[in-house]
Amino acid sequence: MQYFKKQRIRFLFFILILFAASFPLFAQRPMTLRLASLVPENTAWGQALNRLAAEWSRITNGQINVTVFHGGTAGDEPQVMALLRSNQIQMAVFTSMGLNSITPEIMAISYPFLIRNIDEYNEVMRVLRTDLNNRIQRNGFITLSWAHAGWVKVFSRAPINTPDDLRRMRMGTGTDDQSMIQAFRLLGYQMVPAALSEQLFSLQSGRIDAVYNSPVYVAGNQLFGIAGNMSSINIAPFMGGILMNEVTWRRIPERYRAQLQEACRVLERDVERSIASLEADAISTMVRHGLRINELNPAQMQVWFDDTASYENRLVGGANPTFNREYYVRIRDILTEYRRRR
Questions:
Q1: Fewer CB within 10 A of the terminal residue: the chain, N end or C end?
Q2: Rounded to whole angstroms, how far apart are CA atoms 256 and 270?
Q3: Are the C-beta atoms of residues 239 and 149 closer than 8 Å to each other?
Q4: What's the rounded Cα separation, in Å, for the pair 226 and 231?
Q5: DSSP conformational letter for 236
């Protein structure tokens, strides 16, 4: 009898161990993650984020559900960054301006007229991507995705062919764009801070003569009706990234992580293709409605490149440079080698 009693105790103990070992699986509750984006839902970015949310739910069998707050409903980039740090939201889309608060090196990618086309951008990101991801992670975040979102261009009342043409104009820029305001002022341009929502009125009232922004934004907000000239030269790539705070990433079961990251890479490729097409369509639409493209030949473009190069020491020198000198030099060297091979 004593023998059977011991065997029963052992059996119950064995069952208890099995139950305890499997308990996390049964106890795991679905995670709801909040993702903030400044971009409206009815855009390539917005639709891609919705697809990403659905894909994450599918990959995890409903264990991870992503709620997307589109169109800046969670706040502007500084507000969203504060929410991300405090884990009130867990994921967010940032432009290079927002990412600057985590890793200032990234602003060197926006150095005016440094990266000149999509192939150069892709080469720079191929070389620097891992290092940028590591720098961001050291500050408590995981980079889920990078994406090229088109090009920043100048739109103006009168044609602009040379740097001096632009220096004679007052150029409006977003009030939170302090790094680029400082950079353009160092380059000798007349910068007028104007909230994006106020730029159309500022153009209409004559407070500004030009703006620099994405063609998609300019088309959507009808700025080209007054700033009816677009210089063909690219000022800088417009880029964005999706970050997650590391606290949340560590809560995600490891068995899902590789698939979730692959879904983000798919989003990255989809967005880049969509944005390229959307930007081309926006420019074509504006041209049909009166936009004039100021096409620059190679010699005219070289004037812009040489002019900006002459200000290098102001932009990356001194105790408080506009752009991180180390990263600027790295990008410049990557591009020099890349152009040599072409």
A1: N
A2: 21
A3: yes
A4: 15
A5: E
Tokens of 258: 């590789």
d(CA 280, CA 259) in angstroms, rounded, equals 32
Give Cβ neighbours of residue 190 (< 8 Å, ≥ 6 apart). Answer: 167, 169, 170, 171
Average pLDDT value for residue range 218-242:
93
Judge whether residue 51 has pLDDT over 70: yes
Measure the CA–CA gap between 245 and 106, rounded to whole angstroms: 18
Q: What is the pLDDT of residues 119-145, one digit of tens each?
A: 999 999 999 999 999 999 999 999 999
Q: What does each C-alpha distance from 296 to 9, 40, 161, 305 come to in angstroms?
A: 87, 33, 7, 12
First to last CA, the chain: 88
Amino acid residing at 53: A
Which SS3 state, helix, strand or coil, does residue 74 take?
coil
Q: Are 242 and 91 in contact (CB under 8 A)?
A: yes
Distance CA(285)–CA(173), nearest Å, equals 24
Whether the CB-CB separation of 98 and 39 falls below 8 Å is answered with no
How far are the Cα atoms of 67, 148, 203, 224, 330 from residue 200, in angstroms, in the given order?
A: 33, 26, 5, 9, 38
Angle between helices 118-138 and 325-341 (to 10 degrees): 150
Burial of 28 (0-12, 13-18, 19+ CB in 10 A): exposed
Burial of residue 35, with CB atoms counted within 10 A of its CB: 0-12 exposed, 13-18 middle, 19 or more buried? buried
> Residue 2 has what pLDDT?
52
DSSP state of 224: G
Token pair listed for 281? 């369509």
